[in-house]
Amino acid sequence: MVDRPNKPSALASTPGLPPQPQVNISHANSRVSAVLPTGESIEVLLFGATVTSWKDRAGNEKLWVSDAAKLDGSKAVRGGIPLVFPVFGTAPDHAQTSKLPQHGFARNSKWEFLGKSSSESTPSTSQSDASVKLDFGLSSATLDEKTKELWPYTFSAIYTVTLTPDGLRTGIVINNDGDKPFDCQFLCHTYLRINDITKVEITGLENSKYIDKVDGAKTKSQSGAVTITGETDRVYTSEPTIVVTEGGSTVFKIERDNLENVVVWNPWTEKAASMGDFEPKDGFKNMICVEAGSVAGWTTLEAGDAYEGAQTISY
Ligand SMILES: O=P(O)(O)OC[C@H]1O[C@@H](O)[C@H](O)[C@@H](O)[C@@H]1O
Hints:
This protein is mainly beta.
């Protein structure tokens, strides 16, 4: 699809009635942005279909993006919501995905903007009902040749980003369009912006088992809320709702559909220092990755099968 600026339609009118504020959507420079009449906004880069900004109605950014993040397609974005597919991390022992780079190719591929649907405010509803849904597509047909060689399966995926005045929903449908089965993992690698990591608690993971990636991938049991006091990299299997609090107040609520795992990641000092695209170096104090996904095992999609999963983040 060729990028072209959409003419924004901020006001729509019905004869005899005052104009109603409408959702304002623009598609230019390889990104799509949308602003609701109530003021909430999002920005999605076609590279990786990465959500790079989500602001509340007061203009406060809800996602963390590194000051050194590459936004030119040369590297996966360090921040926002990169997508992990078809492998989480690397899987040297998994023949189908062993050749793929860390976290697969979805976050490094150019997605196509498939279009928008918005539920506009009308004279009979209020402007606070207006929302927008943006669809992005990726398929084996549009992958670069190198990636096709590394992962020779036939698939199509539609990623839907929905902004409402209450929150942000990101959901995927992955279809096996080929004639042989494939295994996959999927995850929304969400970088949440917070003010002070030392005041953050994550609840909803109490009594969950987790794999501790910074302690030899040992399986452990969580007791109480999760707090972050050093490098943290854990894969939980838990109930569908997670709450992030800061200083005792809820700052995010994450609900998951068909995404049984939650990865909690914070690089802390040394790991942040080792990442060239992580700036400022003490930025780990202002972010926490709470990543909804299906990554502890493999989802096998038989020919003709589809997988569907989504998260909804509110605050
Ligand atoms: O540096 P990357 O490839 O974006 O990955 C960042 C982190 O992503 C997390 O999801 C992984 O659990 C971590 O192990 C990893 O370090």
